[in-house]
User: What shape does this take?
Amino acid sequence: MFALNQENSIANHFLAEIRDVSIQQDRARFRRNLKRLGSLLAYEISKSLQYEQSQVETPLAPTSVNVMKDELVLIPILRAAMPFYDGFLELFDQADSGFIGAWRTHNEQNEIDAELNYQAAPGLDSKTVLVIDPML
Assistant: This one.
């Protein structure tokens, strides 16, 4: 689990704006900040993925670089996660995508339940799945 607010960074500024009730009314800014946070979180997650060495031809000479080995599947929880998901796609643009439609409900004991009404995903065998939702 990754928490962007544990260290001082621009993420704290974006989180503050998302939480501010006066800024929440500006839907475009709210979505833009979610997308920014998605990209920042995707970067942090990228540090924990698996990499392998690969050879690339540069203008000067061949060189070895570490490239991502994991095959990713990004699965946002519709619909609140869509701007967040866009931020992940900025970095993981080669990832496959799946989608889950879910919402919160309250039961008779006033506990929160989740209702699922839609799920679609490509094959997940030997893939790294990132479930994307700003509330998780």
